[in-house]
């Protein structure tokens, strides 16, 4: 069927397949707009992030593709849909069904790689491969069924679903990016235990990254919010950080390192395609704090960003002078890294990364 779309500023026509659930798509888009679980790594169209018009135009007219990168919890809900879990037990499951149907209707690809590396790291390779099979089944589920669950017309997907076969691979293999972020997260917790003044914690971390390790943009932004003195959204960053069981505290740091790895991978992809403009990335998470970090990373995670904008954003949680001091320090690092004279550091010892991890974990165990 051929559909015409127009508003005061735009008119175009596209051909949709027979049976396309257009009305359901508009209803789902309204639901997703209300819960707002996605963060765009680009400037959303004026019509709105979830409005089908934007995707119809970008995909059909501008030949721009969109890729959704979901976090661990969103991917897990996708898989649970295919496994037959009833949606009345979990509102997030309904949102996941609507989001998956939305992606299918609008040809939005889903790239969940980091989420499955995280699962393999926590629960083992077999568990990750098993869930990957169920995710692929969900990704190919009937679009109308997904819409019915997302719009509360049904409680489960109707059909005989089974996990797709997945080629054996080592998802549990350590990622160098995660190791680096784990070291930075350990250093954050160390500074929280060792230093009293919030501004000292942030500036010490930034200086340590510059002189002794490596600069991580998402970590710098996370620290700038986490250590802030004025009601920052920090509740779920380091789970069990004050637990008497220090292994639980370390597990919380590991979890934070996966969040940072997800953000740094997102930022890498967004920066890679920023000049080409043919692919756009959406991040999906049920975690409000992680979405906030993603917005900051997308907006201020490159040397082309405006430092005044970050200073203004941080002023929500910092005194104005301290927000400016942090911002100037971050952008000084970014300018240095993007300079033609900059050269990446090399490890001073073959076992340098493992040594830093061991030292960081030891401090957490003994420094509470």
Q: Helix amount, in percent?
A: 55-70%
- Order of strands, widest sheet: 3-6-4-5
Task: Count the DSSP helices.
Answer: 15
Instruction: State the major sheet.
Output: 4 strands, mixed
Strand content: 5-15%
Mean pLDDT: 87
End-to-end distance, in Å? 65 Å
Overall outline = globular
What does this structure look like?
This protein is of the alpha/beta class and 368 residues long. It has 2 domains: 2-150, no CATH class; 176-261 and 288-366, no CATH class. It contains 15 helices and 6 strands. The chain has helices at 22-35, 52-60, 72-83, 91-105, 113-123, 125-139, 143-150, 176-194, 198-212, 217-226, 246-273, 288-300, 307-314, 320-337, 352-366; strands at residues 2-6, 11-15, 38-40, 65-70, 109-110, 279-284. The longest helix is centred in the last third of the chain and has 28 residues, at 246-273. The chain starts with a strand and ends with a helix.
Question: What are its keywords?
Answer:
368 residues, alpha/beta, four-stranded mixed β-sheet, two-stranded antiparallel sheet, globular
Sum this structure up briefly.
With 368 residues, the chain is an alpha/beta fold. The protein has helices spanning 22-35, 52-60, 72-83, 91-105, 113-123, 125-139, 143-150, 176-194, 198-212, 217-226, 246-273, 288-300, 307-314, 320-337, 352-366; strands at 2-6, 11-15, 38-40, 65-70, 109-110, 279-284. The strands form two sheets. A four-stranded mixed β-sheet has the order 3-6-4-5, sandwiched between helices.
């Amino acid at each position: 069927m051929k559909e015409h779309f127009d508003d005061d500023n735009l008119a175009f026509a596209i051909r949709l397949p027979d049976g396309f659930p257009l009305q359901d798509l508009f209803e789902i888009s309204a639901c997703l707009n209300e819960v707002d679980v996605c963060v765009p790594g680009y400037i959303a169209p004026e019509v709105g992030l979830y409005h089908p018009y934007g995707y119809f135009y970008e995909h059909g007219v501008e030949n721009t593709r969109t890729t959704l990168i979901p976090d661990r919890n969103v991917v897990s809900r996708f898989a649970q849909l295919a496994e037959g879990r009833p949606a009345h037990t979990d509102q997030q499951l309904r949102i996941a069904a609507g989001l998956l149907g939305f992606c299918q209707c609008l040809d939005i690809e889903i790239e969940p790689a980091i989420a499955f590396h995280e699962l393999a790291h926590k629960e083992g390779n077999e568990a990750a491969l098993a869930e990957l099979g169920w995710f692929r089944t969900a990704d190919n589920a009937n679009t109308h069924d997904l819409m019915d669950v997302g719009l509360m017309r049904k409680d489960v997907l109707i059909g005989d679903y089974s996990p797709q076969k997945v080629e054996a691979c080592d998802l549990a293999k350590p990622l160098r990016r995660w190791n680096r972020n784990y070291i930075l997260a350990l250093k954050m917790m160390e500074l929280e235990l060792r230093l009293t003044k919030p501004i000292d914690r942030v500036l010490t971390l930034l200086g340590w990254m510059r002189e002794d390790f490596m600069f991580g943009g998402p970590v710098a932004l996370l620290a700038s919010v986490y250590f802030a003195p004025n009601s920052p959204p920090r509740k779920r960053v380091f789970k069990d950080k004050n637990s008497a069981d220090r292994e639980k505290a370390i597990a919380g740091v590991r979890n934070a390192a996966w969040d940072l790895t997800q953000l740094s991978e997102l930022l890498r992809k967004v920066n890679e395609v920023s000049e080409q403009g043919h692919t756009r990335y959406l991040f999906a998470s049920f975690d409000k704090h992680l979405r906030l970090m993603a917005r900051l990373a997308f907006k201020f995670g490159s040397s082309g960003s405006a430092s005044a904008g970050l200073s203004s954003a941080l002023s929500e949680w910092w005194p104005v002078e301290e927000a400016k001091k942090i911002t100037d320090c971050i952008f000084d690092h970014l300018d240095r890294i993007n300079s033609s004279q900059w050269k990446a550091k090399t490890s001073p010892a073959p076992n340098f990364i493992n040594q830093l991890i061991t030292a960081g974990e030891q401090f957490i165990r003994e420094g509470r």
